[in-house]
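Notes from the 1:1 (GR / supervisor)

We went over the backlog. Supervisor wanted to see one worked example end to end before approving the batch request, so GR pasted a single chain during the call. The sequence is below; no edits were made to it. Supervisor asked that the structure be written out right there so they could see what the output format looks like.
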Amino acid sequence: MPSALHMSMPFVMICVVLLAVLLVLVAVDRYVQKERRMILMVLIGLVFSLIVQNYMEWTAVNSAPSEEVVRRRLLLSNYGYIVRPVILLLYCRLVDLKHSHFAALALTAGNFLLYAVNSFTPICFYITADNHFAGGPLSNTCLVVSVILLVYLMYIIINSYRHIEKREFWLPFTIIWFITVGVILDYRMTDSDQVITYLTIAVVGSTVFFYIWLHLQFVREHEEDLIAGQRMKIMVSQIQPHFLYNTLATIQTLCEIDPQKASEVTERLAVYLRQNLESLEETDRIPLEKELEHTRIYSEIEMIRFPNIQVLYDIHDKDFTIPALTIQPMVENAIRHGVRIRKEGWVRVIVRRAKDWHEILVEDNGRGFDVHAADNNDPSHIGIRNVRERIEKMCGGELRIESRPGEGTSVTIRIPVRQEVQQ
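Structure output shown during the call:
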């Protein structure tokens, strides 16, 4: 017994330390929702109790046979068989909070009742008077229930996170494999082999890795919420009060000198506002043509207000998608902060294929600016920052700015072709 204890205690200590570290991480992780944090803490508590149960049962196994020892071992074993499916159910709950998982809950409850009754009637297993384990008619109940729950867990992982990259699936499936191997190894282990079972070691490791995997998904969800918030900022930054007031003033003037033109501008303004509102609903990328149409409507209104400017288009690559409100903010910045001062101002939008990139260029001959100002808190550059962040997060692309005061500005947006293929 001392030899087995000496060999197994390091595993026990490692498991306890891992759970303690995990508990601290869960407590301070700002990405974890309150409900998931509670589930994780309960899960960590149950796994820790399983380690204690393993140690106490190992002690009972290696004690001299007596009625008290047999009774204690029976209760400890029943507890172990009850807790294992509960842990798997909590895994399922962590992955998917939206559903009740009634079938899984019913299986876990049934397993609980069977082993609770087993403490009084040996329908699953019993401990002989000489302190040996003996199977009953329903001895494989916990194993069967656990296998069903593992298959169900695999199903909801695939169903809930099918949109993520395939390489991220290796972690949850590795966890399932760990647990399966732990069960197989335990079947080959005799009663007194070691303090902690292979399954318990696998469950401890799986809980740690499961948290790491879920943390990645929590971060992803948090970033999606940030993107949703950015869409509102973009909306505010694009529908500028000055633009609306000045356009309405232009319409009012045109009503007196050119009613037909006033009607055309009013129609374009209505389309422009509607498309801005629709952009708030866009969680995915949109076809380039749709973004170009929105940009053209905006630029047509501005060219009516400012006859000294022109917006030109040179489109050679159309078959790809981009985040909504990507090109239009760049054209707006060029007009509002650049070319208005020119006697003959121009903005040119070029779309072309460049090796492994879809490349969008927005160039102007405006007054230029300090490129570093685009990265500070200057409100005039909020559109640039928002576009850059969405290009990077939604497309894996990049946005570069080159500008020389007094000469003009060039904005280059690059979107990897491989990202388009994955869409």
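Supervisor's comment: Residues 2-218 form one domain.
Batch request approved.
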